[in-house]
Design a protein that fits this description.
This protein is mainly alpha-helical and about 130 residues long. It has a single domain, classed as HPT domain (Four Helix Bundle (Hemerythrin (Met), subunit A), Up-down Bundle). It contains five helices and no strands. The mean pLDDT is about 90.
Amino acid sequence: MPYADPSNDPLDADALARLRELDPGDANGLLDRVIAAYLNSLDRLLPELNAARGPGGTLDTVRQVAHTLKSSSASLGALKLSRHCAEVETLARNGQTERIEAEIDAMLEELGRARVALSALRKVQP
C-alpha cells in the first residue's frame, strides 16, 4: 500500500475531529450542516470574487472575500486554503497587485480541492 502524504490532503484530520467532538455520535448532524453552510457561502462569495477581479473590481472586495473564507475554511480544516486566503487578504490590504492574481489562482485551486473533499464528507448530498 503506498504511503499517503497527509500534507497533501486538503483537510486537516485534527480540525475535523475537533468539530466532530462538538456533536458526539453525530446526533444533530452538525458536521453536515456546517459543511452545507460553508458550501452555500462559496456560492455567494465566489461570484463576488470573480467580479472584483474583473474590470471595475476593487481590492477591497477581494480582501473581504478572502477574509471571510480564511476563518471559515480554517474551522473546517482547510488549513492550506486558509493560508492562501490570508495571503490574498494581506496583498489586497496592502495594494500589492503584482502577485495577487497568481495568489488568487492558487487560492481558487485549493478551494476546489477542499470543496471536493468536504462534499465527499456530506451525508446528505445537495
